[in-house]
Amino acid sequence: AHGMQSGATMKTVGALLLIATIVSCEVTAKFGECSFPGVDLEVALDEFLQRLPASYEIPNSGSDGMLPGLTFGNIYLLGLSTLEIRGAPRPFCRKGSPMLEVSLSTRAALRFIAPWRYCSTLSGKLSTTSSYVTLNALFEVGEDKLAPIDVWLTWLEGTYVLLDGAPEPLNMAVAILSKLAPAVVRDFWVEETAWRSKDVFKDVATSGKN
User: Does one domain contain both 70 and 124?
Assistant: First the structure.
């Protein structure tokens, strides 16, 4: 009887070791060959997102010379501070480095806006807005911070363009053209949102511990 009990015990231990090996292999397959720092990733992400600015001035983004007398000031990106985590963050390894990919969506509209002036008689603001935006962000996970590597646009809806301060017929013409040529507006968003958001993320990361 004792031998049978010992045999059963060994089988149980063997089964547990097999399960542990399978789990270990699954973890290795999921994360690859690297070790993650002992940091709560969701807390680190929340702290990072809380530091995103409500308004970000894009340096050297103004322009003139498009038309005689017409100038644009620097573009501002508004609304990144409303980004929140959408779904579960996805940790993985890349070339031995711990990485984290996360999907982020806006709780409110995202907007690009720039002041304009025509000669000395007219001035106002040109803006384009999206009611809902989803971004994916890729971070490298450090001991005490997240280092943004890349940002790309994954969803965009409800975009429109407004021109404020110009005569009403011109305001209406801009609004109509943005509806008639949605691909032009969308191309602007696809390129600018990822590029500028990445700049903002990197500025936040280098401005202090997140």
Answer: yes
